[in-house]
Amino acid sequence: MLRTFVARGGDLQGDLTVEQVREAIAVTAIPPAKKDAVAWIDLADPTPEELSRVAAAFNFHPVLVEDCQADIDFAKIDSYEEHILVVFHSMRLVDGSEEFVAPEIDMILGKSYLITVHRDPMPRTVDANWFRVATDPKSLSRGADYMMHALLDTAVSNYPPVLESWEDMLEQVEVDIFNGEVEESPEQISAQKRRLYTFRRKISPQRDILLRLSRGEYAFVSKKAVIYYRDLYDDSFRTYQLVEEQLARTNSLFEGYLTVMNNRMAEINNRTNHVMQRLTIVNIIFLPLMFIASVYGMNFRGMPELEWEYGYPVVIGFMVFIAAGFLLFFKRRGWL
Question: Whole-number mean pLDDT of the chain?
């Protein structure tokens, strides 16, 4: 889908036909008829024909067109003669889970135009600013560089809610570990570490891009707009620090989980040792008793005790004496 806004002073044209879009592109491309003419063209999941039409009007390099058609995992910035290309990613949580997606947005910034290309719907980034321009044309007529800053600012502002949701989840994991409910903790911690590492890989190059824009390295970003990019870089830097803090906390939680599991294993080992000690005592007590019983259970002829009138009670008494002696011995040693 192709849609366009053209702002001249306080006037705004939008939702133009294909012919009007071509005319608007021509007006703002080579060179603008008025100094305050600014165009924003948004290509949402564009067809090859729509992208080719815009590429021809704005003299896109073939490499730039390929970048707009490809899925690029990491942010980057490329400089061309008539414009720059900024590849950026917004972030949002998948509904009902802690997983996140990072929809890509390609921004081509020229002297008096901004062209955005994205495959996925971006209601919080592109659509929100589109509505803002529709209600306040001056937000676009200030300049294309200001408009790109607004898009980048909205994209970066989507990061804290993601991190806040993860922070709440980590707090719950911490409470579960403290309460000893650690059955799901290793899976949760491992999944969160993976998400944080992926998140950091996404925002790290974006931070570098914002730093370069804030230094005024590109002629398409005016000196007046540079200060806004500096503030945006500060926000991105703080977000990066928050990610690092959450990674450190995740590692601490995993260490806490290991401590709980080690304590559990130690407790289990202590219980096992206690049981084995009791069983060993029972074996020690019954070993001589079994020996005596086995000797007199052979029933050989010539065993005088078998014919003795008091043989049975004497043997039983002797066995009781041995058992009582062992129990008393173990009791005094503190083994019972």
Answer: 83
For residue 160, give the DSSP letter: H
Same domain, 237 and 327: no
At 17, the pLDDT band (50, 70, 90 cuts) reads low
Averaged pLDDT, 42-59 = 88
Q: Does 266 fall in a domain?
A: no
Tokens of 260: 């709980």
> In one letter, which amino acid is 224?
K
d(CA 7, CA 33): 12
Bridge partner residues of 4 (DSSP): 41
| DSSP assignment letter at 60 | -
CA-to-CA distance for 332 and 67, rounded, in angstroms? 84
- Is 90 within 8 Å of 102 (Cβ atoms)? yes
Question: What integer pLDDT is reported at residue 151 of this predicted model?
Answer: 94
3-state secondary structure labels for all residues of the chain: CEEEEEEECCEEEECCCHHHHHHHHHHHHCCCCCCCEEEEEEEECCCHHHHHHHHHHCCCCHHHHHHHHCCCCCCEEEECCCCEEEEEECCEECCCCCCEECCEEEEEECCCEEEEEECCCCHHHHHHHHHHHHHCCHHHHCCHHHHHHHHHHHHHHCHHHHHHHHHHHHHHHHHHHHCCCCCCHHHHHHHHHHHHHHHHHHHHHHHHHHHHHHCCCCCCCCHHHHHHHHHHHHHHHHHHHHHHHHHHHHHHHHHHHHHHHHHHHHHHHHHHHHHHHHHHHHHHHHHHHHHHHHHHCCCCCCCHHHHCCCHHHHHHHHHHHHHHHHHHHHHHCCCC
Domain containing 288 — which CATH number? 1.20.58.340
- What is the value of pTM for the model shown? 0.74
The verdict on 163 and 219 lying in the same domain is yes
The residue type at 225: A
Residue 199 lies in domain: 2-261
